[in-house]
Amino acid sequence: MANLAVNIGGLKMKNPVTVGSGTFAYGQEYDRYFDISKLGAVTTKSLSLEPRAGNKPPRLVETPAGMLNAIGLQNVGIEAYLRDKAPFLREKGCTIIGNIYGKSPEDYAELAKRLDEAGAADAIEANLSCPNVHDARTARGCTLVAQVPELVQEYTRAIKAATKLPVFVKLTPNIIDIAEPALAAEEAGADGVALINTLLGIGINPETRKPILSNIVGGLSGPAIRPVAVKMVWDCAKVLKIPIIGMGGIGNASDAMQFILAGATGVAVGSCSFRQPDAAIKVVEGLNDYCERHNVENLTQLIGKLE
Amino acid sequence: MPQVSTCEIQAHMEVAPDHYRLVLHAPEIAQEACAGQFCMLEVQEGLYPFLRRPMCFERIYKDSISILYKVEGEGTRLMSRLSQGQTISVQGPLGKPFPLDSDVERHILVGGGIGIAPFPSLAEAIISELGTTPEVIIAARTESMLLCEDEFRQMGCTVHLATDDGSAGVKAFASEVLRELNPGPKARAYCCGPMPMMRATHDVCQDLGITCLASLEAEMACGDGVCLGCVVEANVEIEAERMVRVCYDGPVFDSSLINWSAY
User: Fold this and answer.
1) Is the CATH code 3.40.50.80 the one for domain B106-215?
2) Most buried among A83, A199, B86, B263, using CB within 10 Å?
3) How far is A26 from chain B (nearest CA, A)?
4) Searching chain A, which residue's CA lies closest to the CA of residue B245?
């Protein structure tokens, strides 16, 4: 067995593989297909202070090698998570990355504090980049927090002040240079960055001449976006000191290796779990095979080792 | 527990224009499957189509399952090219089955078009578990689209046919046929078909004062409650609980739970 363990900004993981927030719910469903405690970490669906109903349907449409979604952060809320969902993950022995979403720096700080105090997460991932919620847009109009480096700093500082847990900031690819908000997060004390969130897209039904999604715009995910995601990880790795969790269309170990070679310390399996419920654990097994095939003792030796 | 199995295609035939029956050797899934549940089929290897296709069980045999489907889009078009002897990946069984209630005196299955698909297995379950024989209303646009009539007759079901163009049975909507049957208060309707047809059936059942169980269809990514892509609006007071998942909370719902005005 190769050593796959990583340390992502203070979060120790037995292997680099986690899941994309929103593609794994709170773990229970996919635990019926494989032992989810064998993953490096489980990343929760975005949690908000109050439960959210999300957008009206239709919420998703298939695209070539991927899908567009506009779920709108439907979630049970922090209270129900702490009461009904976290105990399952803790009993399983999972490492938990608690993904949070709020409308202000104060919301994020409160969410991080409550997860920390309840022992219901081992790290915080701040979703500053969901494209499907209108209330996430700032005073400047149709802007995501993760598109404005100064806002990234303000939000990151507020979260860091509220918790001792490692804090990761999830960034959007819908920006000219993703390294700018990444650097802003680092300067504000983030312990890592997670990228990429979905790319904006629209699906149109030519027969009805109407948009397919009720939200009109959705977020594109799946293997279709993988080259974009790998390039953005590479962009960030060149300038950051803090580690990166890379994601975007990872479905197997060779996909994951592209991200690691480009500079990611951790990797997340997202939409590919929908097709193959055990995709994430297959990536763990495949990374071990890769290391054995290439005589690599510690997978960390290969982080950013693009030749 | 749902599982993912590689299954051999035992038979694949066109049963009506653009309508197919796919029989899969799937012993583990067949053993656990109940009428009203569904499976997710991987149409082909590779990334196109990216998502599996949700398909309800038409029949559940000892070692195999059958799927009845209509070619509607790319996924089903590719599916229709699969041949006997090929294998495909099947995930299931998924979702909640039809509840079987022995207090019900008259079971009426109402299928519109390809919406008849879950009812052969339901008819079998009602016969074998409740010891009574359901009635079936089979409705379609035209005669050639009426599906499963022989299957239901072989099971001993009373069959009522209805077509939009009057080419077979009565020229009426399925919901109108249901109203004409004048089922007593101890009857229960089960419906599956296009949303407007189910909405009309729900309205008739409200008038008649009987329970209607609707089997819904939606585009879905995971089929297992995770992605939240397949939700429908329910009549629920608490706003945050208003969106129910067709895949996990359904696909079978008491029709009074669904907010039909949204469709």
Assistant:
1) yes
2) A199
3) 8
4) A57
Which chain B residues are closer than 8 Å to A277 by Cβ?
4, 91, 222, 224
pLDDT at B239 over 90: no
pLDDT value for A1: 86
Residue A175 to residue A181: CA distance in whole angstroms:
9
What are the catalytic residues of A?
A: 130
Could you give the CA distance from residue B133 to residue B109 in angstroms, rounded to a whole number?
11
Chain A residues with beta carbon closer than 8 angstroms to that of B224: 29-30, 277
Which CATH number among 3.10.20.90, 2.60.220.30, 2.40.30.10, 2.60.120.340 corresponds to the domain B3-94? Answer: 2.40.30.10
The confidence score (pLDDT) of residue A132 equals: 67
A138 pLDDT exceeds 50? no
> Domain map of chain A by residue range?
6-54+73-199+222-302
B243/chain A closest Cα distance in angstroms: 6
Q: What ipTM describes this predicted complex?
A: 0.94
Classified as helix, coil or strand, A263 is coil
Identity of the residue in B42, B50, B224 whose CB atom sits nearest the CB atom of A67: B50
Residues of chain B with CATH 3.40.50.80: 106-215
The answer to whether A23 faces chain B, any CB pair under 8 Å, is yes
**Alpha carbon distances (Å) from B183 to A74, B106, B111, B186, B188:** 40, 7, 17, 8, 8
Instruction: Please check the confidence at residue A171 and state whether its pLDDT lies above 70.
Output: yes
When CB atoms are compared, the residue of B4, B230, B231 closest to A277 is B4
B224 closest CB neighbour out of A29, A67, A71: A29
Binning pLDDT at 50, 70 and 90, where does residue A137 land?
Answer: very low
Q: What is the pLDDT of residues B151-178, one digit of tens each?
A: 999 999 999 999 999 999 999 999 999 9
Task: With a cut of 50, say whether residue B126 has pLDDT above it.
Answer: yes
DSSP B176-236: HHHHHH---TTEEEEEES-HHHHHHHHHHHHHHT-EEEEE-----SSSSSSS--SEEEB--
Between A140 and A99, the more confident residue is A99
Q: Are A273 and A19 in contact (CB under 8 A)?
A: yes
CATH of domain A6-54+73-199+222-302: 3.20.20.70
pLDDT at A130: 78
B263 touches A: beta carbon within 8 Å: no
CB contact under 8 A, B229 and A56: no
| Model pTM score | 0.95
What stretch(es) of chain B map to CATH 2.40.30.10? 3-94
Q: How far is B218 from chain A (nearest CA, A)?
A: 9
Query: Cα B257 to the chain's mean position, in Å?
Result: 18
**Interface test mutation site (partner B, options A55, A56, A60, A75, max chain B beta carbons within 10 A):** A60
Q: How far apart are CA A77 and CA A69, in angstroms?
A: 20
Q: Which chain A positions have a beta carbon within 8 Å of B219's beta carbon?
A: 58, 60-62
Average pLDDT over residues A31-48: 97
Tell me the CA end-to-end span of chain B in Å, nearest whole number.
32
